Amino acid sequence: MKYLCSNCKMFRYDEDKGDKETGLLPGTKVENIPHSWKCPVCGVSKSYLEPLHKKISKELSTKDLTYYRDIAREMLTGLCGVYPVCDGDPDHTCTGQKYGAPIGLGGAGQAKTFEANYKALQQYRLKMRVIKTHHEPEMSLSFLGNDLSIPVMGAPLSGVKSSLKDAIPEDDFYWGLLKGAQSSGTLGMVGNTPSSPEDLGVKVIGKNLGWGIPFFKPQSQERLIKLFEVAEKLDVIATGVDLDGAGSTYWVTSDKSVYRKSEAEIQELVDCTKKPVIFKGIMNSEDALKVLDSGGSACYVSNHGGRVLDSGQGVAEVLPDISKEISGKIPILADGAVRTGFDVLKVLALGADVALIGRPLARMSIAGGEKAVKMYFDYVKDDLRRAMILTGCDSLPDAKMSIMDKLGHPY
Ligand SMILES: Cc1cc2nc3c(=O)[nH]c(=O)nc-3n(C[C@H](O)[C@H](O)[C@H](O)COP(=O)(O)O)c2cc1C
Q1: pLDDT digits over 205-228, tens only?
Q2: Distance 80 CA to ligand 1 centre (A)
Q3: What is the DSSP secondary-structure string of 117-165?
Q4: What's the structural domain count of the chain?
Q5: Would the pTM count as exceeding 0.90?
Q6: Same domain, yes or no, for 46 and 161?
Q7: Backbone dihedral angles phi then psi of residue 20, each to the nearest 5 degrees
Q8: Ligand 1, closest atom to CA 155?
Q9: Could you tell me the CATH number of the domain that includes residue 1?
């Protein structure tokens, strides 16, 4: 039988193979491991070893988020501990310097920006307000002319081979993200990766009759304009460029150059297509105003989940300033450590129109495809509803700064 250390979520013990490092011979059953034995990763006793398949063998009817999280933990062993809170904690499996190795689900450098996203958002607390006539919260919205059930979308993701242990085929990964979001009444997005054809994501959206948004890395204008043409033909909802992808080392080391873009270049991208264009990776109000001036249809506030620039600011630190400049002019999207419906409400109160989720959906898509992704959206939706009821919000415009207070500096 195989076991996983439930404390560090990193050490796996296979009774058939034993563990050379701690002197356990092949065939040593867990009940025969001496009580003095310690996990070689985190130092806890053998009582922390839990059968890997305990939950995975649950009946079909009992499939829940825990079920899919357990599968993801097994599929991503050594890369992601699928911890109770995905917060860029320096002690987590995904974080720490990688010295040139792929970053998996972690962040660039020491993953301080990943951690900053979490900490910056958690310094806001929701104020409870319950004496008010009850109304069912209105969570739906129109985004670029499309009706969505919730102000939450799936962030663009890609790179199963480079970041997710090649767990499933890249196109299946995209399909799970897109269909799961759609089944929950909202939109999914896909990215692009140098290890697959650059138009793979947009083609999967085409298979989904255009319901989805492809994001392309900021490659040469010539290449981007061609990809925009493909996207337009496949009738996608909108097309995006993750401008902060200019810092993607994976693209550069794969010999596919990525670049910073000038104002004239983003203008050219907007003008080359009839589809709405979204620019991602915006982290200050000057850049946000440039997006607005270029005719961009939405501004996506993000630092790529801390995966490109380390020692950077958390999204919640910059979002209010950006919102002050462009709110009501074009939709503002924002991501970065959004994990729950409570987090969604805070991101809206900070000035976003839509909050987006990255890492949790990546885990769901590899572990259970559409069903698991939908389950995550539904979980977020339930908590958003509850958060709105308990903070006195009847509709999305009620989510304002005044529903929160702010702790001192979190670092
Ligand atoms: C495994 C992985 C792959 C990603 N791939 C892309 C991508 O191809 N294009 C892109 O714009 N962003 C990509 N991102 C960044 C996400 O869109 C998003 O900005 C980030 O994950 C949000 O932070 P969160 O994961 O803490 O929710 C990726 C993120 C992860 C974790």
Answers
A1: 999 999 999 999 999 999 999 999
A2: 15
A3: HHHHHHTEEEPP---S-----B--EEETTEEESSSEEEPPB--HHHHST
A4: 2
A5: no
A6: no
A7: -55, -45
A8: 17
A9: 2.20.28.10
